[in-house]
Amino acid sequence: MTLYNYVVYEPSTGYVIVKGSGELQSVDPADFSPTAALLTYSDDPGDDLYVADGKVLAKQSFAFQKDKLQIIADGLDVLTISNIPVNTTVTRWDGQQDVVNDGIVEFDTDLPGLYTLVFSAVPYLSEEVTIEAIAAT
Questions:
Q1: Could you write out the DSSP letters of every residue in 88-130?
Q2: Is 0.70 surpassed by the pTM of this model?
Q3: How much is the pLDDT for 1?
Q4: Interacting residues of 67 by C-beta distance below 8 A, sequence separation 6+
């Protein structure tokens, strides 16, 4: 009996659906997605993985920039997050999802509170950004 480290992933995106270790005959990628593929690897790069050029790699941190994390809740003060990779999904606190293709997210509000944005894209780790909107004085 030979045991393998493997991932089941989406070839079009490199997104890893499942990571495992075991006998390969018990793994059917079609059980996870009709387009999924199976790839074995020897060195374990960690838990947060993606596939590129036939290799299993560790995800990396986003390198985006935030000009501030606190704004005045007046509908005019704007927070800008830039250097966002193309095809990054941004999930808002209310569940709405948008795909960023121009590298920038701007946020303003007229309601005080905490607002969390979750950024996710292959080959990056998911990252949360919490913005505080404080009442105008």
A1: EEEE-TTS-EEEE-SSEEEE--SS-EEEEEEEE-TTB--EEEE
A2: yes
A3: 66
A4: 79, 80, 81, 82
DSSP annotation string for 59-87: -B----EES-SEEEESSS--EEEE-PPTT
Q: Are residues 51 and 71 in the same domain?
A: no
Spatial separation of the C-alpha atoms in residues 83 and 79, rounded to whole Å: 14
- Residue 30, SS3? helix
Q: Taking residues 87-105, report their average pLDDT.
A: 96
Residue 50 CA to residue 10 CA, distance in Å, equals 9
pLDDT at 59 over 70: yes
Q: Could you give the dihedral angle defined by the CA atoms of residues 88, 32, 58 and 21, in that order, rounded to the nearest 10 degrees?
A: 170
* Domain count across the chain: 2
Give the pLDDT confidence score for residue 125 in this predicted structure: 95
Query: Whole-angstrom Cα distance, residue 59 to residue 48?
Result: 6
| Domain range enclosing 118 | 65-135
